[in-house]
Design a protein that fits this description.
By secondary structure, this protein is an alpha/beta fold. It has a single domain, classed as Alpha/Beta hydrolase fold, catalytic domain (Rossmann fold, 3-Layer(aba) Sandwich), CATH 3.40.50.1820. It is 32% helix and 21% strand. The protein is built from 6 helices and 9 strands, in the order E-E-H-E-E-E-H-E-H-E-H-E-H-E-H. The strands form 2 sheets. The protein has a 7-stranded mixed beta sheet with strand order 1-3-2-6-7-8-9, with helices on both faces. Strand 8, helix 5 and strand 9 form a beta-alpha-beta unit. The chain is globular. The termini are far apart.
Length: 222
């Protein structure tokens, strides 16, 4: 569908040792999480290349077919919402290409972290857990995984021990916390090292969550 993604990037200030690929949510763009970088207070910050890809522009069914940046189409808003699974696979392939671009620069896959919010978190989980080379970690914020059943047979053994951070607002009206918690429990059942945090917030990011993200990244980038 799309051969490559446009990106917003923050280059490392010193030697490039790590890469973070951070995916925005539905209707946003790569600038959405650009401002979070200084708030994370990462020990390795000068050596991290931050990449914020822009999702392809496509019609979104739940928004009346309006075209917007989306990693995949959402067909309904029920708790078991129907989604465009093919779109998840296509966007995951685009993220794989970004990972490989960083590897071609000499960055080990084990020093590349995927993060995402909402739809972006879905892609971070799907792409990361099916990727054939070990990654540093996966962060999924206010997200769930509609392809969890496919993951049971398609998951990569290379990322079986990759740490995962899931975080969610308990009053999220967009992605119900029940959906996120169900994915967390499913990943636990598959023996992934996944941690969970929730907060009194809606479909958003809060300061306490930023602190948990900071701790997580500082733990995996050492």
């Amino acid at each position: 569908m799309y051969s490559e993604l446009s990106t917003i990037e923050i280059p490392p200030q010193s030697a490039h040792l790590y890469s973070v690929i951070w995916l925005h949510g539905l209707g946003a763009d790569g600038h959405d999480f650009e401002g979070i970088v200084p708030e994370l207070h990462l020990q390795a910050a000068p050596s991290i290349h931050f990449i914020f890809p822009n999702a392809p522009v496509q019609p979104v069914t739940i928004n009346g077919g309006m075209k917007m940046r989306a990693w995949y189409d959402i067909l309904d808003m029920t708790l078991e919402r129907k989604v465009d699974t093919n779109g998840i696979y296509q966007s995951s392939a685009l993220i794989n290409s970004l990972i490989e671009r960083e590897m071609h620069k000499g960055i080990s896959s084990e020093n590349i972290l995927l993060a995402g919010f909402s739809q972006g978190g879905v892609i971070a989980l799907h792409a990361g857990l099916t990727y054939p080379h070990k990654l540093a970690g996966i962060i999924a914020l206010s997200a769930y995984l509609p392809t969890i059943s496919q993951l049971e047979t398609e998951r990569s053994t290379a990322n079986h021990d990759t740490p995962i951070l899931m975080a969610h607002g308990i009053i999220d009206p967009v992605v119900a916390i029940e959906s996120g918690k169900a994915t967390f429990h499913a990943l636990q059942a598959l023996d992934y090292p996944v941690e969970w945090h929730d907060y009194v917030m809606e479909h958003a990011v809060c300061q306490e969550e930023i602190e948990h993200i900071s701790t997580f990244i500082n733990t995996v980038f050492i």
